[in-house]
Specification:
Layout: E1 3-13, E2 19-29, E3 33-37, H1 44-52, E4 59-64, E5 67-68, H2 73-78, E6 80-83, H3 95-105, H4 112-121, H5 137-149, E7 155-159, H6 167-182, E8 186-191, H7 194-200, E9 203-208, E10 211-217, H8 218-225, E11 227-234, E12 250-252, E13 258-264, H9 267-283, E14 288-295, H10 298-306
Parallel strand pairs: 3-8, 3-9, 6-7, 7-8
Antiparallel strand pairs: 1-2, 1-4, 4-5, 9-10, 11-13, 11-14, 12-13
Helix pairs in contact: 3-5
The protein binds adenosine-5'-diphosphate and magnesium ion.
Length: 310
């Protein structure tokens, strides 16, 4: 595996003794979109901070594109763009100046074309001469992204990029992330919006209480842990489970009015057995009013792993 970030045995104990990371091993593949999911306080921001040099590592090693993030900090940091969780930026400078300055921090030669493109991609071009303080919250967040991209990083961290942002910005952000990936940028995003991971990610990691509890291709994860429920609402209640249905993974509601079929496996197999079940009901003269299919989402899977989403 060609990994662009390699984390080995990473521990972080904050002053006061709180152990926020308890031995994390994680490899991020070059060019992927990796979503790190976890409830609040799980250690997501700490993990990103450790990779980006904002959090002092207690134990373990991290490399970014082959550079040790501690011993070879500048080289490693050059590869990385970080969009922080907190909206902290200099309010009284102009948008253009702040991104030009950000690029300069990394000793990159000036490149007005690149900066213009970044601002255009983020719908910020017409705001380039505005002071950041004059912008709306959503626009300020766009500026943070522009700053992170100013030095053309190969790796982009987005820490809770869409927490509290409007739908439009969220959509723009997703589109921008896809564009960046097409250009070969590796993207690591943390989120507790599971739909974001479901929509965007190639791989999913779940962190809880400072430990990575699972890393998996999204498709494989949904296939392995996902299931589909089909609820069939009957025209007339059944007294009990008909013996003809005994071979099926099916339950009957207490009022005898709803049959629930639970299917695991790939979509196509599920569709086939759902259809077979409907045929079976027809053959047994069990009339129904409605059919409702619910395919488990990543959210259902996440809740079953961590027990909560917040
Ligand atoms: N500077 C700090 N000092 C002490 N504890 C901290 C500090 N920053 C974070 N923590 C604690 O470390 C844990 C992980 O925090 P964080 O990495 O921010 O989690 P997440 O981003 O997943 O919500 C939390 O319990 C948090 O209170
Ligand atoms: Mg956080």
């Amino acid at each position: 595996m060609d990994s662009i970030i390699s984390i080995k045995g990473l521990r972080k104990t904050y002053k006061g003794g709180y152990e926020a990371l308890k031995g994390v091993d994680l490899d991020i593949k070059r060019g992927e979109i990796f979503a790190l999911l976890g409830p609040n306080g799980a250690g997501k921001t700490t993990l990103i901070g450790a990779v980006c040099g904002l959090v002092r590592i207690t134990e373990g090693t991290v490399t970014a594109d082959g550079h040790d993030v501690v011993k070879d900090f500048r080289k490693a940091r050059e590869k990385i763009g970080l969009v922080p969780q907190e909206l902290a930026t200099d309010m009284f400078v102009k948008v253009w100046d702040t991104i030009e300055f950000s690029r300069g921090l990394f000793n990159k030669t000036p490149n007005k074309k690149h900066l213009e493109q970044v601002l255009r991609d983020l719908s910020l071009w017409d705001k380039k001469d505005n002071k950041i303080a004059q912008l709306s919250g959503g626009m300020k967040r766009r500026v943070l992204i522009a700053k992170a991209l100013a030095h053309e990083p190969e790796i982009l961290f987005l820490d809770e990029p869409t927490a509290g942002v409007d739908v439009e910005l969220r959509r723009d952000m997703w589109e921008m992330v896809r564009k960046l990936r097409e250009r070969g940028v590796t993207i690591i995003l943390t989120t507790h919006y599971i739909e974001e991971a479901e929509e965007m990610a190639d791989r999913i990691g779940v962190i809880d209480k400072g430990q990575i509890i699972l890393v998996e291709e999204k498709r494989a994860l949904m296939k392995k842990l996902g299931q589909t429920e089909m609820k069939v609402e009957l025209k007339a209640p059944l007294d009990g489970m008909p013996p003809e249905l005994s071979g099926w993974p099916v339950t009957l509601s207490d009022d005898g009015l709803v049959l629930t079929l639970t299917m695991k496996g790939e979509d196509s197999e599920e569709d086939a057995s759902a259809a077979d079940f409907i045929k079976k009901l027809a053959a047994e003269n069990i009339d129904f009013k409605t059919i409702d299919m619910h395919r488990s989402s990543l959210e259902d899977i996440f809740v079953s792993l961590v027990g909560k989403t917040q």
